[in-house]
Amino acid sequence: MSKGRYWLAIIFPIASVSSGFGVIIPLYILSLHGNVVDVGLATTAYELVVIPASLIWGEATQKFNKLRFFILLSVIGTLPLIVLLYLLHSIIAAIIIYAAYAFIFTASSPAINVLIMNRRKDTVLRSYYGIYGLLNILGNIVGYIPGILLFSDVIARYLIILISFNTISILLTFLLIKNYKDKKSIRNKTKHISKMFPILNSISRLPQILTGHELILKLADIRKRKRTVRIFTMFAAIALVNFGIYLFNTSYIPFLYSFKLSFSDIFLVNVINGIGQAVIYLFFMTGWAKGKLRKYYRISTLIRSSSYFIAIISPIFLAGILYFNMFSYFVAGLGYAMWNISASVIIYVNISGKLEAHYIGIWSAIVGLSGVLGSISSGFISFYSGYILTFILSIIFTISSIFVFNRAYSNGDSIIDFGNKV
């Protein structure tokens, strides 16, 4: 990595804390005798906070142009939340802390993306997209690995590990992030951040929502454009897959926990998922991916659905349930990464133009809403009807996305990506 890219090292500990929070919060709640509904509420609270937080921090970054300040605010602000989680032993407190983390964590996202855009130059879209995603995935894996040594009676130790990762984030931010003097350049970058946001962020846990204030006023004009039906059809297809993802993922850790898998086993399953995602990002960033992206979109939904099916049948082989779910979540990682790259790039290329920021606003709102609905639905369906029904519904919604996605091509229009027909 060239000297000018050393600052990217901050992504690793930030992503590590984020991934750690994503696993430890459900385990924390379950260890306090909470249930899948409580886990669903925590995930829903997180997703609900992300939406306004993204708007607030995006506007603040554009107004003040203090990139290092907002990154520091995020990483320093995370520290007391981890300490509170360590000191308090309450399900309600855990849900509130997770929501607060969603708000403070989002503060760094626009600033990091502006820094990336300043250095992007002429990097090829596919390669750039893959590299950024890979950095986040590797950071996630690093965050999971210490949890493999975690047992249910020492959950507090993992919180100490998160504090260590967060401290590293603070130090690296001080050392590697410099304040920019060219405020005009930064202001121009932040004005365009909403246009680039899906490419920069949709492959990570970082929030995808950052839009302007004129969204509602432009809806009437958007409806008049020829491509509107096609774009909204693709939005609907993506929303179906995203709903299925949240439906499955929200209940997955409680599902594993219900079969007495240890905390270390659950972290191991998540590490395997991260490895699966990394494989696909390497596949795309090295240029091995050939052909039309719509082909990868369709394949990804089938791969993801098959991972849900493997999880469904895993209890039949109770003695090997850990290994079945390691394979299941590895396959899920492959499917998710392939879907995320193909869907995000197809959408980005097709909405480019005068109103792309407003299309992105709608896209982000649809994705956010489907995530919220998927999270809350998952908790209640699993609690009252069982995990198997939840996972079956995940398959149904994911497979149905293919049929909706195909409708986007029914009028014969081609979708362009990477300079080729997709």
From TrEMBL:
Protein name, UniProt field: Major facilitator superfamily MFS_1
Record flagged with keyword Secreted: no
GO MF entry, a single one: transmembrane transporter activity
Entry-linked Pfam families: MFS_1
Keywords: Membrane, Transmembrane, Transmembrane helix
Domain of life assignment: Archaea
Membrane-crossing residue ranges in chain numbering: 7-30, 36-57, 69-89, 95-116, 128-149, 155-177, 228-247, 267-289, 301-323, 329-349, 361-381, 387-405
Taxonomic placement: Archaea, Candidatus Parvarchaeota, Candidatus Parvarchaeum
